[in-house]
């Protein structure tokens, strides 16, 4: 079985834009769901809706893969699953190490989606000596002293950091020095890596803060609408109506003292 250290995905060499690469997993997730329901074909509109993008963008993304579908029929689901999986490098074995087996690390170790998408958890690593040898998700936790050997023995090129923020950079440096070239970082800190090392950061607290911002803005808009409605209602209640003026009481500026239009004054 091929390992991640000897095979890299073809997306960069084929010039697929990063924005398209970021959407490919969305398409694959939607296609996998269709495949599990034995749906043979899907239109660009249906697949775009399932993936949360517009159909024009989907067709443009698939053009980079050389897949254009069939007019009146759509896209072959199984072929697209294979094609996208191949482009993402998911048709080969990617051994992964998870460093930091606290609550989050243990949850990641128990996540069944890794194996079904081509990622094999090769090792679980923690700095706490008391954790060494304890099974998590059927895998015995190993001490960080073994990190370099574990990476070399398993041909690991992808590392997951789930440590506290203070330990993340040191762990990152050791992973990179040992040959890891892609890192998924769950630690709440920014990692410094050399050229050629890819880092993807996942920060749940930041995502929640962004949602809080939108909730606050929506609440502010609702309050503003209520205040505007109340202000408009109050103005209508207190504004006096203009008094009626009898026609005879109006002053006609065109008339003189006697009520006649004055003559033109001589020069």
Which spans have pLDDT < 50 for at least 5 consecutive residues? 1-13, 244-267
Q: How large a portion of the residues is in β-strands, by DSSP E?
A: 5-15%
The count of helical stretches stands at 9
Average pLDDT reading:
84
Structural class: alpha/beta
Report how far the terminal alpha carbons are from each other. 114 Å
Helix-strand pattern, N to C? HEHHEHEHHEEEHEHEEH
Shape: globular
Over all CA atoms, what is the radius of gyration? Answer: 34 Å
Which characteristics define this entry?
two-stranded antiparallel ribbon; 9 strands; 267 residues; alpha/beta; 9 helices; 7-stranded mixed β-sheet
Textual characterization of the structure:
With 267 residues, the chain is of the alpha/beta class. It is built from nine helices and nine strands. A seven-stranded mixed sheet has the order 5-6-4-3-7-8-9, with helices on both faces. Strands 1-2 form a two-stranded antiparallel ribbon. Helix 1 crosses helix 2.
Question: Topology of this protein?
Answer:
Layout: H1 18-36, E1 41-42, H2 44-51, H3 55-63, E2 75-76, H4 77-87, E3 94-99, H5 103-109, H6 113-116, E4 119-126, E5 135-136, E6 139-143, H7 147-154, E7 158-161, H8 165-177, E8 182-185, E9 198-201, H9 204-238
Parallel strand pairs: 3-4, 3-7, 4-6, 7-8, 8-9
Antiparallel strand pairs: 1-2, 5-6
Helix pairs in contact: 1-2, 1-4, 2-3
């Amino acid at each position: 079985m091929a390992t991640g250290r000897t095979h890299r995905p073809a997306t960069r060499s084929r010039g697929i834009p990063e924005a398209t690469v970021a959407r490919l997993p969305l398409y694959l997730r939607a296609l996998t769901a269709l495949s599990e329901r034995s749906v043979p074909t899907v239109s660009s509109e249906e697949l775009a809706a399932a993936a949360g993008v517009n159909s024009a963008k989907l067709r443009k993304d698939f053009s980079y893969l050389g897949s254009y579908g069939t007019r009146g029929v759509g896209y072959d689901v199984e072929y697209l699953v294979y094609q996208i999986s191949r482009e993402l490098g998911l048709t080969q074995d990617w051994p992964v190490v998870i460093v930091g087996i606290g609550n989050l690390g243990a949850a990641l170790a128990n996540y069944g989606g890794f194996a079904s998408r081509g990622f094999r958890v090769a090792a679980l690593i923690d700095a706490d000596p008391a954790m060494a040898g304890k099974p998590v998700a059927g895998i015995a936790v190993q001490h960080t002293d073994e990190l370099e050997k574990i990476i070399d023995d398993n041909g690991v090129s992808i590392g997951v950091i789930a440590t506290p923020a203070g330990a993340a950079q040191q762990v990152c440096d050791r992973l990179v020095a040992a040959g890891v070239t892609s890192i998924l970082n769950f630690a709440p800190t920014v990692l410094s890596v050399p050229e050629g090392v890819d880092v993807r950061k996942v920060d749940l607290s930041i995502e929640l803060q962004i949602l809080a911002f939108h909730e606050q803005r929506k609440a502010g808009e609702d309050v503003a609408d209520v205040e505007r409605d109340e202000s408009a209602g109050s103005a209508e209640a207190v504004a006096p109506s203009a008094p009626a003026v009898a026609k005879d009481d109006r002053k006609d500026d065109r008339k003189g003292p006697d009520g006649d239009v004055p003559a033109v004054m001589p020069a």
